[in-house]
Amino acid sequence: MAKEKAVRKTIKTASTPAPARQAKAKPAVRRHHDANVENILGSAASLFAEKSFGLASIREIAARAGISFPRIYYYLRNKEELLYLVAKRGIERSITSYDNLSANVTDPAEKLRLFIENHFSSSTASPAEAKVLIQETSKLSEPYLSEIRAMERQYTETCRTLLTELARAHGKELSRARSRILVSLLFGTLNSMGNWFDTERDMPHLHEITNEIYRMFAGAVQ
Q1: Is 1.25.40.280 the CATH number for 86-222?
Q2: What architecture (CATH level 2) is domain 1-76?
Q3: Mean per-residue pLDDT for 198-219?
Q4: What secondary structure does DSSP assign to 93-127, as a single string?
């Protein structure tokens, strides 16, 4: 019995919350941790875009991030987790920024235009991340791959819903097959921008470019 009491006392002591003065220091530590992770993810995205996921090494990523090779494992488990987090961050940014832009918009035409503009803006703001999302995520294993694919489906389903709503606003119904084709064509157009978009030449015309894409696809459902 005495032994059991000693064990319970040890467990209770180990689970006792840290003193308040230690808890106050946590936000600053967390901000520093988050900043380092963001730096590592940015470095990983640029190297994955330049060399591919397979050829980029953890040692190179650490060097580009300005972090010692052993210390990078304090923040992340392995290179695959880096790819997963780069992809997850990219999709979440696009989803969140579109949700913020369209929060108070009810016109289906304007919502579709904002979706296209947001996707283009996100891609031009983080071209390395956009390239990784398009070309490298298939190299993920489970369960990472399933989670990223689910997020991608959520994002593309938003686009399909926008096209369907715009068609209904004009008294038409899109079949599932036709909406799938249009969504595939739209993302094919948006995701090919890395092949021709020149920042210096085209950035001043970003609004015009996105409007042209909007007119093509809005016209297909009106």
Answers
A1: no
A2: Orthogonal Bundle (1.10)
A3: 93
A4: HHHHHHHHHHTT---HHHHHHHHHHHHHHHHHHSH
